[in-house]
Design a protein that fits this description.
Blueprint (H helix, E strand, L loop, with lengths): L4 H14 L11 H30 L1
Length: about 60
């Protein structure tokens, strides 16, 4: 998974908002973030694909 500077900026903004508009420095360990969330992301994608297949069969 390759994340860009824009991805890092977006993640930083979420962190700032989650902490009441924090304005100090934010360190993001991108490799660790990927490790922590990749399994969950794969599960969400799998569920979305199953739902899409189910919906497409119902509308055919």
């Amino acid at each position: 998974m390759e994340l860009t500077k824009e991805d890092q900026h977006t993640i930083e903004q979420y962190i700032r908002q989650a902490h009441g508009g924090y304005t100090g420095p934010v360190g993001i360990w991108m490799d660790r973030l990927v490790d922590l969330h990749m399994a969950y992301s794969r599960m969400i994608v799998s569920m979305a694909l199953v739902a899409a297949r189910y919906e497409s069969k119902g509308k055919a």
